[in-house]
Amino acid sequence: MENTVSTQLNSAQLGRAPHNDKRALNSSPISTPKELKRQLPIDFQLRQQIEQQRNDIRACIAGEDSRLLVITGPCSLHDPQAALDYGQRLQQLQQAYQDKLLLVMRAYVEKPRTQVGWKGMAYDPDLQGKGDMAKGIARSRLLLLQLARLGLPLATEALNPLVMQYLDDLISWTAIGARTTESQTHREMVSHLSMPVGIKNSTDGSASNAINAMVAARHSHHTLGMDGNGQIAMLDTPGNADTHLVLRGGHGLTNYDEQSVAQAVEQLQRSDCRTRVLVDCSHANANKQHRRQHAIAVDVAHQHRRNPGTILGIMLESFLLEGRQDNIEPLAYGQSITDPCISWEQTEALLQAVYQVLAP
Ligand SMILES: O=C[C@H](O)[C@H](O)COP(=O)(O)O
Ligand SMILES: C=C(OP(=O)(O)O)C(=O)O
Asked: Is residue 351 part of a domain?
């Protein structure tokens, strides 16, 4: 989307900057988290469902549940209808595979970028490059609410700690991405979050920053943030012990093979961290060749059988149509506008193959 979304400032925007700060742009106030949660509330039953789903994932991390955790879905959500279509299909697969797989839908509304590009529904819901976070955050919350009501646990990447305050109650698993693993702000945020969190190895492929993040996040912190009323406040975070490492490869090297996993597990043990790792079958592990995800997932499923206690699960980038698209006009239904994904049919085949490894 880099080509279709302008990130340049126009003169009208610059003209609105106050005299004493020529770099400051227009600011548009938006509702507080409490106001938005009041408009789009979660009821008692849904709250209980999400708490149960978080507990199910916690049990997998702790090794009390031997099912393979599968985080699967589009690289990013941009079209609510296609996302709900995907969610309905996934929910049906969950019924079929529930004894061996715990399926969680990737529902990412924020995207970290290597340089510039579309940053997700929360920022630019109309894909026009204009940015409308009031609309974007509200649309994201509504969509997550509709997806959660399908009965699926949801996964997202927490990028901006303020955005997370509007959505956190709907999420069962959160990722800290490879580009933010080393950030103190993100480690403090994890310490504050109430759900299990997967922390990715850095883009250079090293697991050390992620393991340092796991250690930092299990401690409590004092940090500057925003409370539910939109008030800037010092937050005392409780610490989050429900974290795990996500291996996503890096710098042209993969790290999902048995030896890399064993090395990571050893490093985790030395830092007294949870040892079960989740393998991201996409990103640098697949060198963004989406079809490679199938072979990687099957390999990891075999490791899960051979070495119980090392593999927690897999992550897939999957949507309705295979690949990705650059042009938003016309927009193909169900195809990624960020990273390439496997199609729905390829996803069904992959999950069936993984299931067969686990339940021969
Ligand atoms: O998962 C998505 C991308 O890998 C990540 O957001 C970085 O994308 P970019 O390198 O295209 O900016
Ligand atoms: C951006 C992502 O991954 P990573 O942080 O591993 O690049 C992602 O999973 O969408």
From this structure: yes
CB atoms within 10 A of CB 20: 6
Residue 249 Rama label (left phi>0; alpha psi -120 to 50; beta)? left
pLDDT in tens, 135-154: 999 999 999 999 999 999 99
H runs (alpha helix) in 247-343? 258-270, 283-286, 292-306
Domain residues for 118?
30-59+68-358
Number of domains into which the chain is organized = 1
Q: Is 177 in the pocket of ligand 2 (CB under 6 A)?
A: yes
Work out whether strand 221-226 and strand 277-280 pair parallel, antiparallel, or are unpaired: unpaired
Tens of pLDDT, residue by residue over 104-129, are 999 999 999 999 999 999 999 999 99
Ligand at shortest distance from the CA of 106: 2
Distance from the CA of 285 to the center of ligand 1, in angstroms?
A: 14
CATH number reported for the structural domain that contains residue 299 in this entry: 3.20.20.70
Its pTM stands at 0.94
Cβ distance 201 to 247 under 8 Å?
yes
Residues 6+ apart with CB under 8 A from 183: none
